[in-house]
Structures are given as structure tokens and as C-alpha cells.
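Teaching assistant here, posting this on the class forum so everyone can see the example we discussed in section. The complex has two components, and the goal was to see what a joint structure prediction looks like when all of them are supplied at once.
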Amino acid sequence: MGEDKKISMAVIRRLPRYFRYLSDLMQLDIKRISSKELSERMHITASQIRQDLNCFGGFGQQGYGYNVEYLYNEISKILGTDKRFTCIIVGAGNMGNALANYENFRRRGFDIIAIFDVDEKKIGTKINGIEVYSNDKLPEFTANNKVDIAILTVPNKKVIDVAKQITSLGIKAIWNFSPTDLRLGDDVVVENVHLSDSLMVLGYRLREKGY
Amino acid sequence: MGEDKKISMAVIRRLPRYFRYLSDLMQLDIKRISSKELSERMHITASQIRQDLNCFGGFGQQGYGYNVEYLYNEISKILGTDKRFTCIIVGAGNMGNALANYENFRRRGFDIIAIFDVDEKKIGTKINGIEVYSNDKLPEFTANNKVDIAILTVPNKKVIDVAKQITSLGIKAIWNFSPTDLRLGDDVVVENVHLSDSLMVLGYRLREKGY
């Protein structure tokens, strides 16, 4: 199930959230849950949940609800949580440092294997045990190591040039933290992180409450 | 329009993205756009766009498309981009530093007015011109200054205690960067940032491409 038909990106984008909630439920030893309960926990409408989970065969049973472990396993399979990816960080500034120290990535299958920067003072140091290399070493490093994902935390004015260099070296996925939306052709996968989007939603919700 | 009926959170969460794209189009002096073109730029289906924009009266006309400036202004009104919010950051680590230096927040109406930490070495210093105070000063500071939003970048094991303290001081909105999903009752607005969700989607898309 699920593998047979194409699942829309809108559903895919909600899967990590289901994954987190179901994994919490498993830790609490909860075996089954109704879409109503899941809806209240996740702040997603029950009908949206039913629609989403039906996409990959997670049919709930009337009066029984969803089997937590089954759903968790199905979502894990779709998300490929058993797969491992190698990542590099380009830009050893504050954001690069924060991400290099983020405990969750490795647990989710993402190994940061090197960090790159142009600052002589940073080159040769280690962040959370990961070595910082000169940007000049990028071609050599990518020739000798399989790199799945480049995490870009360079200044905004540099990001387009760095992204072009990265893709010319054959890296096929970019996680971009600069405010510039990168578009790099169909063979490169890009996720642009726009932190201010989430802040704007917070501002909206705060005003809506009348505070 | 729009103000009359409740707009679903799913639509609200997409608005900052429309806002960014429409603001790009305005800068390119593009006056109108079809849902098909907008769909291709934004990687959202044309039918989803029509559905979303209809929520606040952005009816496109057959053969004409959407009026960019009108839509931009309507979305700005709904998001309240003319409003300003005061923010504090609690936790002057790497993530706190990165956020204090993030150029986009002020432009979007979010002013960071103080940073708090427990580390004696950081207290009294400034980050991007913003003073770092001791956590002990939180009650005094919030008594003397209107604080709309607390941005929490403290270690995961501290976040629940800090969130409780923050809300006991009357702050009504929390932007949480720790992996723990905070739930603090109906009168506190929380946005939990889960960076690994976006990374998991990137991993999914990479595998889907067969790389």
C-alpha cells in the first residue's frame, strides 16, 4: 500500500508530524487511537487525518480507531526513516553551529560528516566533533566522500554562488537556510527553510486571540 | 472579505508563502498572474491556489488571472504585516545568536528587544546590538516592558521549566526551538519549530528521485 500510488507533497509534508506524534504514543504504550483523539492532540481536523491516513492504507475501524504501531511503521517506511543520509554544512556561523549541535538529526538518519567555511580562524577547528574545512576543499571532499545533502548556512548574498558550486560538484539535495528561495533545476531537490513564515503565523494567532 | 469568516489554520499556514511570492512579483513589477503560473512558481496545485485565495476574496478572472497588488494587500491585512511585535530570546547559545542576527524578523514586524541567559560570561554583552540579561531579570524586565513573544532557544531539558516561568509572567506567545512540543493551555499561543521535519521531507524527496 502507499508504494503503489503517488502521495501528494501536501500529505508528505505532514508525515513527519504524524511520525513524531505516533512515536510519542508508542513510548506511552498506547496501542490505538481514534481520529478524534489524534485530531485533538495534533490540532488537525479529524477529517483531514482520515483523508491523510487513508492515502497509505491506514484505515481506521469504526469503534476501534487506528492501530498506532501499524501506522507508525507504515509512515516510517514511506519516510524511509531506516535510510541514512550524509550531510555537509557550508557556513560555520551561528546557524551552522546550531545545526551541527542539533541532537535530533543523527537520530533521524542524517549524519553531518564535514563543515566548510572561508574563515581561516574556523578552518581546522571542530564543532561537536565535526571538522571544519576550507571551502576550497569542497571539490576534493565531494570527490572522495558520498555527500547526499548540503546544508547551506552562508550569508544571503553568497547563497546563489555557493548553491551553484555545490550542484556542479554533483550534490543533489540542498537544505537552504538563507531567505533567498533557491531554484536549481529539476534534478536538484531543495528545501528552503523560511523561519519568518512560522513567526508570522505566531503573530497572526496572537492577534486573533485579541492580545 | 475574509474578516467575515474564519479562515482555517491550514490556509493561514500557507499565507506567509503567498505573501513572499506576491511580494517578489511586485518587485518584478508584475501586475497580474494566472493560478497556473503561480502554481508553477510555488509548487502548489492550481486548484489548491484557487481554493486558498477564494477564502479571502481573491477571485481570479477567467483570462485575466489574479491582481498581484490586490492579493498582496489582502494577505498583508490578514497576516497583519503592519503590526509590530516585541520579542525576547531566552537562551543565548548558537541558535539564539543566529536568530538575534536574522535580518528578516525586524522587516516582518518582529523586534527583538532583549536576550536572556544563565551564563555569567554572556550577561552584559550584546548580540547584534541587543543586550543579554541574566534570566533572574526576567520578572523585572517583563514588568517594565511589553513583551509579546518569547523565543525559546534553551536546552531541551530546560524548556518546560522556562516555558512555565515565561507564561507565569504573562507572556502569551512562545516560539519554541526545542524538540519538545510545548502545550501550555488555551490562553498561550505556541509555535513549535521542528527543523527535522523539513529535513525528513528533503530525505523523502531525494529517495523518491532515486538518487
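For the discussion questions: The longest helix of chain B spans residues 9-27. Chain B touches chain A through 59 residues (CB under 8 Å). Think about how each of these relates to the inputs above.
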